[in-house]
Structures
1.
Amino acid sequence: MKLFSELYKRLDSTTRTNVKVQAMTQYFGCAEPADAAWAIYFLSGEKLRRIIPTKLLRQWAAEEANIPAWLFDESYTSVGDLAETISLVVPEQKIETTGSLSEWVEERLQPIRTMNEEQQREVITDIWHQNPADVRFVILKLITGAFRVGVSKRLVTRALAEHTGVCAEVIAHRLMGSWNPTPESFLRLSNPDIDDAVVSQPYPFCLAYAIDRDSAPDSLGKIDDFAAEWKWDGIRGQLIRRRSQTFLWSRGEELMENRWPEIETAATLLPPGTVIDGEILATKTDGEVLPFSQLQRRINRKKVGRKLLHEVPVVFHAFDLLEQDGNDLRSLPWRQRRDHLESLMSRLQDPQLKITELISARSWADWTEIRTHSRERHSEGLMLKRVDAPYDVGRVRGTWWKWKVEPYTIDAVLIYAQKGHGKRSNLFSDYTFAVWKDDELVPFAKAYSGLTNAELREVDRFVRTNTKEAFGPVRSVQPELVMELAFEGLQASTRHKSGVATRFPRISRWRQDKAAKDANTLEDVLDLLPGSSAGGDH
Amino acid sequence: MSTLLQQTSRGFYCPRGDFYIDPHRPVDRAVVTHAHTDHARWGSRLYLAARSSEYLLRMRMSPNAEFQFADYGETISIRGVKVSFHPAGHILGSAQVRLEYHGRIEVVTGDYKLGSDSTCESWQPLRCHLLITESTFGLPVYRWPEQDSVFDSINHWWLENRSQDQCSVLYGYAVGKSQRIIAGLDPSIGPIFCHGAVEKGNAAYRQTGIALPPTIHTSNAEKSQRWAGAMIVAVPSAHGTPWLKRFGKTSTAMASGWMAVRGSRRRRSFDRGFVLSDHVDWPSLLESVEACDPDTVWVTHGYSAVVARYLREGGRDAISLDRWQRSGTDKEDSGRERHDEETSE
């Protein structure tokens, strides 16, 4: 237990992921398998089934600390964490903790659940009196189940990969589903024989290059060498069906379990040994693709409720076939892979699995014209794929091109600034911009990137010398600097004061030629909304 | 019986003696508990304070200000009101102000702490009818660890950083906290450098006769100075500024009572937090009220509503003077602002 609370302390005292991974790796190196297994369980965000009602914990803590209930509540409100409040108010005794993490969980904490209240109280107060404050805090965290220490399952996976020397994908596979925190499970993680995990293994993704906005697309070559699809803003995914199991990987090489149940269900129709590359999109039954903001409502939901399933249905838009009947097709030219994909998909006929539409054209001018209608379909532009190219690993120039529409741009005034993170933590580098609404500046977008380092330093100096007020880390500044913001999309939003939400805003240039009064108005911004009279490309 | 002191918009006022204690605005005659800028403010005509705060006060105040100093325990009569200063244990020269008139005794604690501190005289209880106490840390979550164990962990942290070729940067308020820290550092570990504001405070402490280990103003360091293994004592507002860049690889820590709570530490992203406060914690606040045994307690500056209610429930007459305080207010920011003013080098 002491070792684990030391780990907790190390994880808690840094914001750097590398340091966290290192701390976990070292822990796994010296912990007993039984303890390491429980550590993985808790650090991945799992918690114990409720051991004791928190109401009782609060009551007993107040009594042990000899303070009235209202004063315990005041303390709790101020601290904001029950486990921490208890470990701070109950007087501490100088006693060393004994027992390992697994002994604590299995022999001391879990049995509490079935005790009567009197016994429970005795055990709990003994825990408080027999452990130093920092250890009993961690124990209380295990009991109250709110174990948040800035570590994700992905970081745990990384640390385990470093500890075991087994690659992260295999570890992720082995941690899938209902992982049992037993010593055997932990030892199995480090098994170098990875045959069990091969079944879930994805292929590296092929990525597209962006076409330089200023160069003519016909410089890419003959039109017959390319096929075109709409470019959507969704979640790239690899859908794998092998040995009666389904795996859906994200581009970040993360296994997305239970998040897209309708796609996982549809995937059971796939023949064994199939791997499809595609994109998850929120799509209505009539095929209309919903904006990314809708899809966003489902991202990071571990479990999806019925209401959300109904409101934001998702479809897997298949655009490439990487494996068929267990054979790797990646070296085949795109045209052949596409033929196989088409015949496969036509046999399936499932509304949740859809093949992408190819856009035919006779000339570059045709595609150029079609592309100008992208925004009406919530599309970001076109994807161009070389028909004779294999499925490459990573970003290879010339295989796939993304040909996005011009971004929207608005001149806006810098009104708030905040320090950045990491190496920008000394600089005011995160900005909020506003546009005019009558005589008032209304905040409408935040942007973090786009300035050169020299410009950043100059803006930083401006912020320091022109601060009006500080609210915590945020400074409000004299509204003087005007920047041109570029962004990909715009949505009406009730959550933003301006009434709009921007997608991927960034600074395209510093308009030193403009004064605050020359910035755009909210009306100008609203005119860009899809469906407004002046909407569409701009 | 009416009280000797009244709460006014300018601070505590004694009509009988026509003087203020720690006034927020310029007045004719100001009695000052200690040299922190939220207690000793510019612009009054005459300041009366404890003798041992002289160098600190002169450093802080306008050179034109007029001062009168009294030893601890010495009585000065102001229009018949007997005024005396008694150690408060907060920082060097900090005092409780005791007023006596026709047998009626009232005490203003100013900021104070119980427990050991080699850089100032220890708090003494004063029996009184009315006690006006601060309550910055007036919640039962605040219980200070022994000072020695805190210094042990600070020195241990410093050693550990040295072994990893890192420079240690420890933040504390420029006057008081920093000198208490420096006095507790083990100078055999490495050189101690100070931010300008801290070094000014050190000078005033040394002038007063408080022994501190040798320190160097960072600006006076050699060009070739290797910072790895050194200790830098700096003001908290230097955290996250380019000023830190010169020190290369650093580990940062804050020494403050607020560090007792994890959230306060995490919000400001220090690598470490050491719980070291110059205010009373919950048990010592209660202990001091018991020892002074006043008929009435006025609670100010902090969790005053909470402390007043607790005292009332214990059968003592107590009121909160911070009328607009929401219960459960997070006082971290106000606490920080209070001592954090001198930041420039």
Note: The CA atoms of residues 428 and 459 of chain A lie 8 Å apart.
2.
Amino acid sequence: MHPAYSVILFTTASGAGYGLLALLCLVGLSHGEASTLLFGLASMVIALGLITIGLLSSTLHLGHPERAWRAFSQWRSSWLSREGVLAVVTYVPAVLFGVVWSGLYPAPELIKPLAVITGALALLTVMSTGKIYATLKTIRAWHNPWTVWVYLAFALATGAAILAAITAVFGNFPAFLVYFASAWLVIALAVQLGYWRSIDAAPLDLTIEQATGLGRIGRVSQWEAPHTAANYVQTEMGYAVARRHAARLRRLVVIALVLAILLMLAGLVVPLAALPSAALAIFAAVVQRWLFFAEAQHVSTLFYGAEAA
Amino acid sequence: MTSLPPPSAKKLGLVIDLDTCVGCQACATSCKEWNAQGYSAPLTDEHTQGAEATGVWLNRVHGYEVREAGQAQSRIVHFPRSCLHCEEPACVTVCPTGASYKRAEDGIVLVNPETCIGCKLCSWACPYGAREYDQSHGVMKKCTLCVDRIYNENLEEEDRLPACVKACPTGARHFGDLGDPSSGVSQLVAGRGGYDLLPEMGYRPVNKYLPPRARRDGATSRAEALPKPDGSAFDRLFQWADKILSPRQASARANDIDHSGKLEG
């Protein structure tokens, strides 16, 4: 599958934003009001900023961005529509939570209910992003129970690393947060390895013989393509650049995540180590997302000569 | 609304005969010609004068080589492929805007070019590669089953057929109601063992494909089957002519038929 760069930016940026938002809600639930107004505002602005950049970039790959509002209408059947609705709905409790949690408006009794609603909506939004891919039966590597967990784990891991980095900058970096962020990075790594194991084990059992129905006669191969230059289906579904480098790119994701964990743990001694740790976590998420697209093989490529999909 | 309508009694679709299709591309070009100016026009081509000419087509004719077990020669099957107007079209249910829809009255799957946002998700959901994105129009394109022909009262009755069906010179494309077991297309499917593409995907396509018939006799085109000299006066005349015309060292082979396909000798 061709990776649209705006979709990679969208899913990693807004994923990290929703992950951070959900964890700030957790902080609100456990600690009540933010330690300082500045920390509260800064972390909320970063969370909502990442979400907003992501959502805006997601409209860039559309043929008609000015019609994007129409995507809120089909939530009964479409996970893409549900994601859009949830993304927009989340802003309302998120802004209210930010206002009371940061201490802009003193209403400590509202922090907990708003935290529960905002956190749940943030996680549901990430889940529906994962569901868009997981429900596509045409792509074996996505139609997989791990897909949704990969999206959730990376959202929370990058969110936790960013939360640690913000906290380190504001000078109040408890050891608990180091372990908490490291744990999320470990979970993301474990889920990612589980996902790769799962897609590598799933056999590509649809063949060109089945696609054409000509297996009843014999072995099938493409004799002549229906056109002289690659068409939309081939460039969109048959993208294979990163697939050739998949093994190397997988190692890159693992190395980046391991370094992010080690740097996060170094935060126990040097708090600002959390900054490069967060950067590495985001880098790992971007490469992982690119691979997620590039490694995915689409059933329709069978008609263009792929032997199995 | 991208939720699917209740199953329609009428299921309009195509039946494509892989036995008689000769791969002439008349269906593809007539489809392009009609649909570049009708519903959801344009149907853009790019770099038409360059080496990498590309464009949006709603119907494409593939060629496949099939090797039968025990046969020295493979056979070529021409394979037209377009939207199958599935009964469970995931391309419709994933659409976030309602631009993709399945008509309740006849089951035709369409894209409304006025409301499509060009997110391309529907094309990802289609296992048949039937949807193609039009870069210049910014919307998804697909076979309309020539909805603007089949009900078009400005056309003569005999022209109210999909352009591809009307154009096919060998009668390999058939249009009709596959929801009616007594219709011509349904009878054809029943009689010839018409099949679904990728039934294991669960999309339940309406269009059906008729399999190529078995070879009548795999031996008729083999070298051994060609006529042998029978010793008649004509044979002797040609042998004499062959002897005169052949170089001396090759005359020993004059009675043989050369199956090598080589030009020398």
Note: Chain A touches chain B through 59 residues (CB under 8 Å).
